[in-house]
Write a structure and sequence with these properties.
By secondary structure, the chain is of the alpha+beta class. The protein is 43% helix and 10% strand. It has 26 helices and 14 strands. The strands form five sheets. Strands 1-5-10-7-6 form a five-stranded mixed beta sheet. Strands 3-2-4 form a three-stranded antiparallel beta sheet, with no helix packed on it. A hairpin with a 2-residue loop joins strand 11 and strand 12. Helix 13 crosses helix 19 and helix 22 runs antiparallel to helix 23. It is globular and about 105 Å long. The N and C termini lie far apart (107 Å). The relative contact order is 0.08.
Length: 670
């Protein structure tokens, strides 16, 4: 009121107090984002989920179901349906089945494989039950609750005692609590890996299910980081003809760090709005990064702001489903036909013998170069140290390699210096719960400790209950049970633990690719190069292949390897391994090469036209089309019909691509 000295006291009170109160009373009580959860609706989703799960379960395990199967399935379905999550399972199932029908497998990620209901509804192929045998003929089953076996794939082969048919083996021993929470009320987070080539189609299929006006890409907000904020400050002051030191700019940058810089979109996140609501009930919408030419519409609010209010599907693009599609096409072999106990395939993860290559010829002496998840220097070093022999060993290594502070200075020391068996170290979050339960701890406490350790939280927690601070000491709780001395120290070091279901799903895919590498090597290498075609240097890797060892040595000895050189080095190592296996790569061939994919003809790998720098997809496809129409009469005729530019023509001449073809159609008589 002191700001209005020129008004009377009554007038000032009317403006400052009475009118503002009057306005406040006129406004309705609103929230920018609704408080409750609004999942989409699919008619009969509860019944459909229960039916499809029971149909698949009985087709595998027989009717009536074994008690262990029925109890697990009923417990999960009651939780999923009771908490309103059946629709999420049905959506994922519909999208996966459609992708499969279109010829592309779908990989699962995260802890969804912890859910047996997800397995029975075809959302994941990871079976979380304890290791078991089941007869495909008479449905007889045997469940093996033995600490010796962490994966059913490691069980010895066995014939059915009822009908003598060879029994299938399955089960990865994963508790459902990791995915659904201890009380089964945790919102399921189903993340799916679609083929990169198919990801956009998966998004379109989601729109078909729910309607175009109810499906939007998850929006993100890019913020200013320290160095960018400092650069903005220096740039601003330069325009004002002022200057400060970089250190001063870094100090000032703290004031604008985290400010909005641009908008974007989640790599695969899709937000789904129920039919009785509008997207505007939750967030404005926009085109990302102010790009008015794009067809993509995202949430204006960062998707984290509306997480838990409307459904978010993670339909991500991934290389492996593309690789599998190419391998299936090249070999006419489906991944479902691949067994998980092939000794040659398992040996790749500890030696090079199955490749027919001397271990000293390949770095780390293992055969997993170009195998996703197992081909990096870091993981190959782990394989060299651990010498895995079983499928469950591979799952552990996958968990160790994806965790934070789980292998380095932790499990690495236990395995290499203290001779602790791989099967006993902590490699995934599920190990914590399983190991504590096996030691005698109740499930509830084991679950809580797992949740703290997997996120790197301290095991001594302070809680305030009725205004009183209570200390919960999980360290003392762990000490009550017969666990190794190193166990608690290992828990303290961990910052993040990978879910076992995610590791198992990745290993299943990687193992299958390793199978192709052993039995269809040319197709394997051709597929790998196709996936890495943007990094493929034709000159270095094909035309000047005699210099391959020098190239590898030169890049390896560089004090600081740039990303481009690192990618080339990886490809060069794969080409070298291929050579050591006596598989050749031909020069690019006018009659045999495809447009954008490496192919195999008579056991020889043939590069596509697009490996040539400057020769894009359109002219490459033109070459294929014109080649099918008729023979090229001359280089001039080739260029005219394919629209390949002069620079590329000059290069093609230099590598003898045209062989004896004349420059023009004109024939000299003299």
């Amino acid at each position: 009121m002191n700001n209005f000295p020129y008004l009377s006291k009554e007038e000032a009170k009317e403006i400052v107090v009475d009118n503002t109160v009057k306005f406040a009373e006129e406004f309705e009580n609103i929230r920018p984002i609704p408080k409750d959860t609004f999942p989409p609706f699919i008619e009969n989703s509860d019944k459909d989920l229960r039916d499809c799960c029971y149909n698949k379960a009985t087709s595998i395990y027989g009717d009536p179901l074994p008690d262990i199967v029925k109890k697990r399935l009923d417990k999960e379905l009651d939780s999923i349906i009771g908490n309103g999550y059946a629709v999420l399972y049905i959506i994922a199932r519909k999208l996966i089945l459609q992708s499969n029908a279109d010829g592309y497998v779908v990989g699962s990620r995260g802890s969804v494989g912890s859910s047996f209901a997800a397995t029975m509804s075809d959302i994941t192929e990871v079976n979380p039950l304890i290791p078991h045998y089941v007869c495909p003929n008479c449905k007889h089953s045997e469940f093996i609750d033995d600490p010796k076996y962490d994966s059913g794939f490691d069980l010895p082969r066995k014939n059915c005692p009822i009908c003598s048919h060879e029994m299938n083996r399955d089960g990865q021993k994963i508790p459902f609590e990791v995915f659904l929470g201890f009380h089964g009320d945790k919102e399921p987070d189903i993340d799916l890996n679609f083929a990169g080539d198919y990801q956009l189609t998966a998004h379109k299929n989601t729109e078909k299910i729910f309607g175009e006006n109810f499906v939007f890409r998850a929006g993100t907000i890019g913020t200013l980081a320290d160095k960018t904020a400092a650069a903005c400050i220096l740039d601003y002051l330069e325009k004002k003809n002022k200057s400060i030191s970089y250190l001063h700019a870094m100090f000032l940058s703290k004031r604008i760090k985290g400010s909005k810089r641009t908008t974007g979109q989640h790599a695969g996140g899709v937000m789904v709005v129920p039919k009785n609501k509008s997207i505007l009930d939750f967030t404005p919408i926009q085109k990302p990064a102010d790009d008015m030419q794009t067809d993509i519409i995202t949430t204006h609010f960062d998707y984290h702001s509306i997480s838990g209010k409307i459904l978010k599907l993670d339909l991500l693009g991934h290389d492996v489903p593309n690789i599998i599609k190419n391998l299936e096409d090249l070999t006419n072999t489906k991944i479902e036909e691949i067994p998980f106990d092939d000794e040659k395939v398992l040996s790749l993860f500890s030696s090079t013998e199955a490749l027919g290559v001397d271990k000293d010829d390949l770095k780390y002496g293992v055969g997993t170069i170009a195998i996703p998840e197992f081909g990096t220097n870091f993981v190959r070093g782990m394989l060299k140290d651990t010498k895995p022999k079983t499928f469950s060993d591979l799952v552990r290594i996958s968990g160790l390699s994806h965790g934070t502070n789980v292998w380095n200075s932790n499990a690495e020391k236990l395995v290499n210096e203290m001779n602790v068996p791989m099967s006993e170290v902590i490699s995934t979050r599920d190990d914590i719960m399983n190991q504590l339960i096996d030691a005698g701890m109740d499930k509830s406490t084991a679950f809580k400790i797992m949740e703290f350790v997997r996120k790197g939280k301290p095991l001594i927690q302070k809680k305030v209950v009725d205004n009183e601070t209570i200390i919960v000491n999980y360290e003392d709780e762990i000490k009550k049970y017969p666990l190794p001395e190193w166990y608690l120290d290992s828990c303290h070091k961990i910052s993040y633990l990978f879910p076992k279901a995610h590791a198992a799903a990745y290993v299943m895919m990687s193992y299958r690719l390793a199978w192709y590498k052993v039995y269809y090597p040319a197709a394997f290498y051709a597929t790998y190069f196709t996936q890495k075609i943007n990094d493929f240097d034709y000159d270095a890797l094909v035309y000047k292949i005699e210099n391959l060892d020098n190239l590898i040595k030169e890049i390896s000895q560089s004090p600081q390897i740039k990303k481009k050189d690192g990618d080339l080095l990886s490809l060069a190592e794969v080409v070298k391994e291929m050579q050591l296996r006596n598989i050749t790569m031909s020069s690019i061939d006018l009659d045999k090469s495809l447009a954008t994919k490496f192919t195999v003809i008579n056991g020889e790998v043939i590069p596509p036209f697009t490996v040539i720098a400057g020769l894009g997809k359109d002219p490459a496809n033109n070459i294929i089309r014109e080649r099918e129409i008729g023979e090229f009469n001359s280089i001039e005729d080739f260029q005219k019909r394919t629209q390949v530019n002069n620079t590329v023509i000059t290069y093609l001449k230099s590598i003898n691509f045209f062989k004896d073809m004349h420059d023009t159609n004109q024939i000299s008589l003299f």
